[in-house]
Amino acid sequence: MSAGVSLLFTGVGAIIGSGWLFGALYASQIAGPAALRARDTTTEKS
Hints:
Blueprint: H1 3-31, H2 34-37
């Protein structure tokens, strides 16, 4: 693989990676402290 293609994939990967990280950051800012108190209700506890 040439150096140009490797740099292209690296740049695209960085953009995608930072996108989901910023998405999680913004979601946690919107949820605020409620995110810490939220419980997982999808699993049954006996």
